[in-house]
Design goal:
Order of helices and strands: EEEHEHEHEHEEEEEEEHEHHHHEEE
Number of helices: 9
Number of strands: 17
Strand order of the largest sheet: 6-5-7-8-2-17
Helix content: 25-40%
Distance between the termini: 40 Å
Shape: globular
Radius of gyration: 19 Å
Largest sheet: 6 strands, mixed
């Protein structure tokens, strides 16, 4: 078990930014053969409704730059005191240079700051927090800016019912720094690469470069149209992975920290969909009042940005004015999953912002 505990490291603020363009599953009824009852069931049971998506010109980098600017201004900090930048994304502007380096330049950060990208999706925010805590705790950095975001709407086929109504776009910025407060953070992280094909974009890398053949769309057994440049998701396998793995993961970190579920103020899961979250909560016998699950209906599945977006969307006033113990857990592409128990104390946490 990969695990770690940190003291005197704290989150100071979280900002999430989404694009202004909103799409709704109600406008995509043709995907379901015009079946209004099926669409209604998807909305009520799966929890899919609206999602915010970028236009052709806006990227993950743009969203995270906006989130970073808002965070720096809201915390009234000197950006020259930021000495670490971690950018978690699977939709970078370029293969090279890294999004972190470009963002460093756009923000005008000090040249002594380190900056690098992390290629992770649904578990990426928790992995990023672990990295940031480790960097601060080791003395490498005193203030780390963590960016987590994706624009997966650019990666899906509009005729694929399994992904088209699901993915929304977002970028987030979180500041992690040294603290004199008696805060404690614990992390447990996992990977199962045997399931790496369950969520995958087959073409576009050096194993299978994009070409004319990879752009050829084909209809699958369920009537969805896809090409190898599109995001492919095995919904059944992903669901089974989620409801089998996550309850064990939550019990694992609670046991590791000798914490009762009653001691956790809120459980913030990756917003895969409402049905998955409710199944996990039911298996763990959690109080649903402590498990926010409405963010996905407003913004879609935002990959690495879904956990910070949920905090901004559902807990803004709670964590802005109080000390709260949160259990964060992300799970998905990789396959990978990561959980953390973190003390949050009066941080800068405004409502979700649009650009």
């Amino acid at each position: 078990m990969a695990s770690a505990e940190f003291s005197n490291v704290a989150i100071s603020g979280i900002v999430t930014v989404v694009p202004k363009i909103v799409k709704s599953i109600d406008d995509e009824i043709d995907l379901y053969g015009g079946n209004a009852k099926q669409v209604s069931r998807i909305k009520s049971v799966i929890g899919l409704d609206k999602r915010h998506v970028t236009d052709d010109s806006m990227t993950t980098l743009d969203l995270c730059v906006a989130a970073s600017d808002s965070l720096v201004k809201g915390l009234h900090i000197d950006r020259n005191e930021i000495d670490g930048v971690i950018f978690v994304t699977q939709t970078p502007d370029h293969f090279q240079p890294s999004n972190a380096a470009i963002l460093h330049g756009k923000l005008g950060l000090d040249k002594n700051a380190l900056a690098f990208d992390v290629n992770l999706g649904c578990s990426g925010y928790v992995y990023g927090l672990w990295l940031a805590h480790m960097m601060v705790s080791s003395g490498t950095c005193s203030r780390v800016l963590l960016l987590a975001g994706d624009t997966l709407s650019k990666c899906i086929n509009k005729r694929d019912r399994s992904t088209a109504p699901l993915f929304g776009d977002a970028g987030s910025a979180t500041l992690i720094e040294k603290s004199e407060l008696t805060t404690k953070s614990t992390f447990v992280l996992h990977t199962d690469g045997s399931g790496s094909d369950f969520i995958k974009i087959p073409a576009g890398g050096f194993r299978q470069p994009s070409d004319e053949a990879s752009s050829l769309e084909k209809e699958d057994a369920d009537g969805n149209w896809l090409c190898d440049n599109d995001l492919h998701m095995n919904g059944g396998e992903v669901f089974n992975f989620s409801i089998q793995t996550e309850p064990k993961a939550i019990k694992e970190i609670l046991d590791f920290t000798t914490t009762s579920s009653d001691d956790i103020d809120y459980f913030i899961f990756h917003q895969a969909n409402k049905y998955i979250i409710s199944n996990i909560a039911r298996r763990l016998k959690l109080d649903l009042e402590k498990v926010p699950s409405t963010t996905v209906a407003k913004y879609g599945n935002q990959s690495s940005a879904s956990i910070p977006c949920t905090i901004n969307d559902s807990l803004g006033e709670e964590v802005s004015n109080n000390r709260r113990k949160l259990l964060l857990s992300g799970f998905g592409v990789g396959l990978s999953w990561a959980s953390a128990i973190i003390d949050i104390d009066s941080i800068f946490c405004p409502p979700v912002q649009e650009i």
